Amino acid sequence: MEVSKCHATMRCGEENTVLPKDRKWIGLEIAKAIVANGGKALVADLKPTKPAEQFIEASAGKAVFLQTNVTKREQLERIIPAAKKHFGTIPSIYVPAAGILEPNRSNWWADNGESSYATLDISKFHGVAHEKASNGLDVTHPLQLGRIALRALLRNNIKGVVVHVASLAGLYGRYAHPLYCASKHALVGFVKSMASADPQEGIKFVAVCPGYVDSVSGPFISQATKSELSRIVKSAIWDDSEDIAKAFNYSELEAIEPHAVAEVVIELIENGDHVGGTCISMDEKGRRQVIDFPQSPVRDSDNPFPVYDFIKKITTKERESKI
């Protein structure tokens, strides 16, 4: 799928993109890359950063901002109608990019006796009482947006792509920050599980797995080693907190550029060889690798369980609803 336009057989115009972003540079660079490649972007977030405002203003209507609390399902549901109202069509590309790391005040190792963890429940990160929490940032919100996107694409009979921003932490364990690794493992597992949506429904779920990204997420409690620096991505977390930068021995010169992550997102969207379930890892030297996961002993194509018939009934009903 090209970002600037669909393939001729798909019979649609320029791609629109929904981008609930990470409030700092990764999401912004993805939005810039979408527009630079001829697409349009709706950026959904609590509030835009100054660079985001400047980008949207200079986009000549190709990018628009929608104030959205992605921890609220009802606000996620507003995104697609807003994009259709502004651009004339529903988006065919979705990039849920919001996320945090493990803040010390809500940390598995610190064990502060909280009923939930901020990494898995972003409403606690923003100071919302747990009783009012309705969504989690690192896990629940991207999965919910993916389901909302799937339903909209089916109802409009449009092929589409959902790109999840995971991490190398979704492939390996880290003793010092197990919650963040668990959240990213969840995203990778979800993308792998959704591989069959591509051949079955023409909607592919894929993921980019960069190294540690320079963002506003929050500190790990461990000291980064020199080898880890080769996988840190440049983002605003280092600008916002000197303590976090020192904890990681952060060096801007050795960090992965956020635009490099955006380039992989564009590759996942446009390259037809990257089928549903594809996850691509990357490092600071620009090396990209399609992750070769072990083959499951049970393939979806074997259709061994009645649940697959149940899923097909749901997707068929949604495709026929045309709402």
Describe this structure in words.
With 323 residues, this protein is α/β, with parallel strands linked by helices. It is built from 13 helices and eight strands. The protein has helices spanning 25-36, 50-58, 73-77, 79-87, 122-125, 140-155, 178-193, 197-201, 226-229, 237-240, 242-247, 258-270, 306-321; strands at residues 16-20, 40-45, 63-67, 93-94, 160-165, 203-209, 279-282, 288-290. Strands 3-2-1-4-5-6-7-8 form an eight-stranded mixed β-sheet, with helices on both faces. Helix 1 (25-36) packs across helix 12 and helix 6 crosses helix 13.
Short description:
About 35% of the residues lie in helices and about 10% in strands. The chain is α/β, with parallel strands linked by helices.
Main beta-sheet strand count, sense and barrel state: 8 strands, mixed
Main-sheet strand order equals: 3-2-1-4-5-6-7-8
Unreliably modeled segments: 5-14, 122-135, 213-230
Number of helices: 13
Q: What is the average of the pLDDT values? A: 77
* Mass-distribution shape: globular
- Helix amount: 25-40%
